[in-house]
Design a protein that fits this description.
The protein is 26% helix and 27% strand. By secondary structure, the protein is of the alpha/beta class. β1, α2 and β2 form a beta-alpha-beta unit. It is globular.
Length: 169
């Protein structure tokens, strides 16, 4: 275990304190990159709500890993957002930022669809990641293969309430 459930929650609260001033005015929609970021996005939405910030919510299902432990380098849109994003601020939510390809693709995709602006946030930023293209993150993760809190190993361990790492990976 790398982060307990309580530590995860504390990092989310701090992240929302950082993001709240940026998304408190105008029309905003949170767009979760499915599937791994779903628990993180749900907790973020509840934390924003506790601060009186209500934004739309949608999902963008992108795939570059399939069941592998490394990205294929190709991005596949499995399911696009369901609601229009024209002239709307988008808070793009992902689980892990390492190469930056997923968030960069998703940001460009939202801007191409007419978003007013796109802010990006992730739960975990890997040490090798350059922060260019990333607006906010909850945790600086070690260079390990992460599981739990939505992150998986071939579809398993997503439901763990904490963040762990695979031994030897």
């Amino acid at each position: 275990m790398l982060l307990s459930a309580d530590e995860v929650n504390a990092r989310i609260e701090a992240l929302v304190d950082q993001l709240a001033p940026k998304v408190s005015t105008g029309s905003w929609t949170a767009v979760v990159i499915l599937l791994g970021a779903t628990p993180f996005a749900s907790d973020l939405m509840r934390a924003f709500s506790r601060r009186g910030i209500d934004m739309g919510f949608d999902g963008l299902w992108l795939q570059s890993y399939a069941d592998a432990r490394e990205s294929s380098g190709r991005m596949l849109v499995r399911a696009d957002v369901a609601r229009p994003v024209e002239d709307c601020g988008i808070l793009l939510i992902d689980d892990v930022f390492d190469s930056g390809r997923t968030i960069s693709f998703a940001r460009d995709h939202m801007m191409h669809k007419g978003a007013r602006e796109v802010l990006t946030c992730v739960f975990a930023r890997k040490p090798e990641a350059v922060t260019e293209g990333l607006d906010a993150w909850a945790w600086d993760a070690p260079h390990r293969y992460l599981v739990g809190y939505g992150m998986d190993d071939a579809g398993k361990m997503r439901g763990l309430p904490f963040v762990g790492a695979i031994k030897g990976a």
